[in-house]
Amino acid sequence: MVLSMGWGLYVYKNAIIPLYVSPGHAVFYSLAVVTARERRLQAHAPAITRAVLILGSLYASASFLFLHDTRGTLWWLIASILIIRILDLLSLPIPPTAISPSPRPATSPPN
After folding, report:
1. Opening angle at CA 81, ends 76 and 82, nearest 5
2. In this structure, which long-range contacts are made by residues 3-12, counting pairs with CB atoms below 8 Å and at least 24 apart in sequence?
3. Are 84 and 50 a contacting pair, CB within 8 Å?
4. Strand, coil or helix: what is 21?
5. Distance between CA 68 and CA 73 in Å, rounded?
6. Is a pLDDT exceeding 90 seen at residue 18?
7. Quick check: 10 and 3 in contact, CB under 8 A?
8. Alpha carbons 10 and 57: distance in angstroms, whole number
9. Does the structure show a pLDDT above 80 at 24?
10. What's the confidence (pLDDT) of residue 2?
11. What is the pLDDT of residues 63-76, one digit of tens each?
C-alpha cells in the first residue's frame, strides 16, 4: 500500500488495491517462514542463496537491458545488498555473552 499509493512505484488497474492483495502477502510470508524452518532446505541454504542471487541478477540485468526497467534493477540491487549484508552478519561468531544473560548481582533481603 505504501509503495503503490504513497510512493507511486506501481499502480493497480482502476487505482484500487484488490482485496486479495493483503491476505496474499500474509500467506506468502507465512509460507516463507515455514519453508525457512525446513531442515532439508537449511542444509542447502548456501547453494539456494547463491542461486537466488545469480538468477535474480541475470533477470534484473535482462530486464534492464531489454525492457529498460530501471526501478526493478534498482530494487534488485538494494535487495541483493541486503541479502549479502545479512549473510555477513549471520557468519559472525556470536560471543558467549550474547547467548547467556549476564549474572545479576545478589540483592540483600529487605530489612
Report:
1. 100
2. 9/71
3. no
4. helix
5. 9
6. no
7. yes
8. 21
9. yes
10. 62
11. 999 999 998 999 99
| Residues in Cβ contact with 53 at an 8 Å cutoff, skipping those fewer than 6 apart | 80, 83, 84
Confidence of residue 87 (pLDDT cuts 50, 70, 90): confident
Residue 21: C-alpha distances to residues 17, 53, 83 (Å)? 7, 26, 25
For residues 110 and 91, the answer to whether their CB atoms sit within 8 Å is no
Residue 62 · residue 92 · CB < 8 Å: no
DSSP state of 92: S
Q: Spell out the alpha helix ranges (H) of the chain.
A: 21-36, 39-43, 45-67, 70-90, 96-99
**What angle separates helix 45-67 from helix 70-90, to the nearest 10 degrees?**
160
Cell (9 digits) for 62: 535482462
* Sign of the alpha-carbon torsion through 91, 93, 99, 104: negative
Q: Measuring CA to CA, how many Å separate 3 from each of 47, 57, 81, 95?
A: 31, 22, 20, 38
- In 3D space, the residue among 30, 28, 87 whose CA is nearest the CA of residue 53 turns out to be 87
